[in-house]
Design goal:
Layout (H helix, E strand, L loop, with lengths): L10 E9 L2 E8 L5 E6 L7 E3 L5 E3 L2 H11 L9 H14 L5 E3 H15 L1 H11 L5 H13 L6 H15 L18 H8 L6
Parallel strand pairs: 4-6
Antiparallel strand pairs: 1-2, 2-3, 4-5
Helix pairs in contact: 1-2, 1-4, 2-3, 3-4, 5-6
Amino acid sequence: MKCPFCGHASTKVVDSRAVESGIRRRRRCESCGERFSTQEQMQRAVVMVVKKDGRREEFSREKLLAGLRIAARKRPLPTGAVEAIVEDIEQRLTGSSRPEVPSRVIGEMAITRLKRLDPIAYIRFASVYHQFVSLDEMLEELNRIARSPIGLDPEQARLFEDDLDAIARGEAPRVPLDEDDLEPISLDAHRAAAVPAGVR
């Protein structure tokens, strides 16, 4: 590597350490003696996502992360939990040596991990990803979760059952709202915002 100070072609690595985004190396120019740092990052393989209509686009971790963050909004999740899901999915995709992946596969990977992480975030994501077209479909999924509340504490399980009873009576569950939750939004806009392009 050329020295950024004198342009000499020979530099020596005097220290290396692993950092979160790659490897940081401390170098010394063998001509002028100046020291400088470089950082190496692994170049991830490009994975193309095949949409339902046959279109292809490059996998975007930002779009997937945005969709999962919407689903997990205001949920008491561990710091970095959603980011860890995206990182895991991205590593599996780039490590699979497959140049193309159906959007359905990415969606199922996300929904499986959300289900283990938080049932509320899961049902939010699932309601749009699975495109429930009737209240019966939503009730069936909610009932299935309520019957097997794995990962739910007793209070969460009780709230699930209360909400199911309210829906069965034709009443909307009593959910506390903040002022910013009261902004009107159309169903189409909600779907567009909640589902990342990688899983449509």
